[in-house]
Amino acid sequence: MLASTITPACLRAKIILLLALSLVWTSSAVFAQDSVMIRFSPSGLDDDVINRGDFNNDGIPDIVTGNNAGNNSNAYGLSVYLGRGDGTFQNPKNTSAAVSPFDIAVGDFNGDGKLDVALAAYISSTQWVLQIMLGNGDGTFTKGQTVNLPSASWSITTGDFDNDGKLDLAVALDKVYLYKGAGNGTFSSAGSVKVGTQSQLRGGLRVGDFNGDGKTDIVVSDTRGLYVLWNSGSFTFSTKLVASSSFGIFARPVDVNQDHFTDLIVTYYTCNTGACTNWKVLLGNANKTFNSLRSCLWPANIRASGEQLPRTSTATESTTSSA
Q: Which of 16, 86, 221, 224 is deepest in the core (most CB within 10 A)?
């Protein structure tokens, strides 16, 4: 029977994963952007990406979605579903942004106490942008700064990367591009960091404090390798490969064991087709290393012994400054 093939260690690891996933949804956000990013359908305006926040300051979490409407530019923009506090949501409030988002970062970028959003988006097949949308405090937005990007970005995140009390942005393209927040809803270029071996960083870009030093670090995948960018301050980072898989690897940051070190829930693949989706948890440490919990095949079976794991003990580190 299937139950007899699941070892106690793997079962414990699955319980830890379920607890971690519940933390992603229920815990207070340590950083401005939570690890909530999924495909969502149906919706008010053909929504494509999703995040959360309290967009009308009533203490109840709301949902914000980015609308990807193909060639229908009138439907580009944002929809906010205000929470009722009972697990249901009101009909969407729609705001036109005239861009089509690939990803959404949430934070108060102008310090007025109202949540704003930053969109990694496109206007056309040849024009890609970072679009700021300033919150009005009622679930609607006013269009703010537009920053042109050199290519399409699939992922954006936010955090205070220079510890000045103002939220900054990081955008994944061929490199991780950094933008310094002025605290008034505008941003300026703060350099870039080369990460990985692939031409595009398409594996998600998120933040956490993985070594508990009070600085906001970054995790990103180039789909083959999972990298942590250790924050040295003033937009300077050292880059470390923490896991890899030639078939694809991705991660979500969350403090799994509530020890004030951000951990990583890692999903990786060991084949192109078939039941080969695996997951593991990497626990953050003060010395810039991760302790790996047992890997498991999810959800049907544990992995056969002898299959190659993502590398954690042979990680290489190189210091990369913004340029």
A: 221
- Angle (CA) 67-208-79 rounded to 5° is 15
Token representation of residue 169: 């942005």
Identify whether the C-beta of residue 307 lies closer than 8 Å to the C-beta of residue 274.
no
Query: At 148, which helix (H) or strand (E)?
Result: strand 141-149
Express each pLDDT in 23-40 by its tens digit: 443 333 334 444 333 333
Cα–Cα distance, 171 to 94 (Å, whole number): 25
Cα 283–chain centre separation: 18
Residue type, 283: L
| Adjacent-strand bridge partners of 236 | 233, 321
Using one digit for the tens of pLDDT, what is the confidence trace for 122-159? 888 889 999 999 999 999 999 999 999 999 998 999 99
Q: List, in sequence order, every residue forming a beta bridge with 176; answer none if it has no partner.
A: 172, 193
Residue 123's H or E segment, with its range, is strand 116-124
